[in-house]
Amino acid sequence: MNNKDQKSWIEIKQGSDFPLYNLPFGVFKTAGSEPRVGVALGNNVIDLSVLAEQSFFDVQEISDPTVFYEDNLNAFIELGQPAWKKTREILIDLFSEGNDTIPGNEELRPRVVLGMDEVEMLLPVRVGDYTDFYSSLEHATNVGIMFRGKDNALMPNWKHLPVGYHGRSGSIVVSGTDVHRPMGQTKADDASSPSYGPSRLMDFELEMGFIVGKETALGEQVKATEAEDYIFGMVLFNDWSARDIQKWEYVPLGPFLGKNFGSTMSPWVVTMEALEPFRVDGPAQDPKPLPYLENVEKSHFDIALEVAVQPEGKNETVISRSNFKHLYWSIHQQLAHQTVNGCNVRVGDLYASGTISGPTEDSFGSMLELSWRGSKPIPLQDGDERKFLQDGDTVIMRGSCSNGDLHIGFGEAKGKLLPVKGQ
Ligand code: CA
């Protein structure tokens, strides 16, 4: 049923992010119609609401097939892991080569199989709480060196717990949504007092996020070894950052207005089941974390990541290539730490990784690091260069996994930086 080589009767180009094996979930709408749930298959979106209407999901595991008529995935996710697995199983069967149920029905086929260019993708989940971790050793070290100097780059707690902070869920937007340069209060190093104006140091943060699939009660802990029972899937995430606002406001409390003016999520949620073949070991952890953070085997996922910047009307340049497997703390440890004090988690919560920087200079996950605080311009195609983002720049993040013949991907998390609103 879950054959990785299983072909579909839908034509899918070699190297597509969305072969039959992937089947990521999203929410979309077409002109003049209501939002509904779909999966990506090649260059197509499969309309699950039509399949539900035709009773394809009338099985015990899917207790309420009307979840596919919702404008977010939360109700579907709440049905639980058996429903996610059964939905996937039904879809793999229906769309496998040789199954004539849909292609043999001329009335049904065009209602079920839509072209990606015919649909508008919406935010896939109604995000409840959003936590942003800070789990890349390379990123934390780089930023620490820039802000605190080489000798105490890492705070003393960093290798003992996955540091994180609570973010702002209401300003998370789906890929394709424009983001405005924020206004704010900043203070130059050599200035005696702060000033007010547009941020001058606009940046992205290359991150991934996982979406919680099962709630806990207040007081309950999730062990790292059980964490995957609580995770529905993963997305790409751009945590747009205004470095000058951040730098002036964040000591000693943490990020606030330098971060919460917009964050971009990819529209397709890739399930943990689809990611299973891409498990790898994470980096060795020394010192050994406390027992409640004891991790599972192969706790990381080999997800190649890239960031491209495309100036207005010009070609894009890939300026960073990193990998999710570089993270020091795994998603299991993040969830175990988030809940160690009894903090509850809810379906649709988003837990972002923090900037995913790799060990080499071309794998850094922010412009702050790539340009080393603006001291080294980043070359772009056509003779352009950047230290930080300019108005009109589009930032495009991509992620994919390849393993022998199997390739799956996340598509894109893309957003254009516009000038300050009204200017
Ligand atoms: Ca971040």
SSE diagram, text form:
Layout: E1 25-29, E2 36-41, E3 44-47, H1 48-53, H2 74-78, H3 81-95, H4 109-112, E4 113-115, E5 120-122, E6 130-133, H5 137-148, E7 164-166, E8 172-174, E9 179-180, E10 183-186, E11 195-198, E12 202-203, E13 206-212, E14 231-238, E15 241-242, H6 243-249, E16 263-265, E17 270-271, H7 272-275, E18 279-280, E19 300-301, E20 304-310, E21 317-323, H8 331-338, E22 350-352, H9 367-370, E23 378-379, E24 385-386, E25 394-403, E26 406-418
Parallel strand pairs: 6-22, 8-16, 9-26
Antiparallel strand pairs: 1-2, 1-5, 2-3, 3-4, 6-7, 10-11, 12-15, 13-14, 13-22, 14-16, 14-17, 18-19, 20-21, 20-25, 23-24, 25-26
Structure described in brief:
This protein is of the alpha+beta class and 423 residues long. 15% of the residues lie in helices and 27% in strands.
Description of the structure:
This protein has 9 helices and 26 strands. The protein is of the alpha+beta class. It has 2 domains: 25-122, SH3 type barrels (Roll); 130-418, Fumarylacetoacetate hydrolase, domain 2. Strands 6, 7, 8, 13, 14, 16, 17 and 22 form an 8-stranded mixed beta sheet that branches. Strands 4-3-2-1-5 form a 5-stranded antiparallel beta sheet. A 5-stranded mixed beta sheet has the order 9-26-25-20-21, with no helix packed on it. The longest helix is centred in the N-terminal third of the chain and has 15 residues, at 81-95. The protein is globular. Calcium ion (CA) binds at residues 132, 205, 207, 239, 354-355.
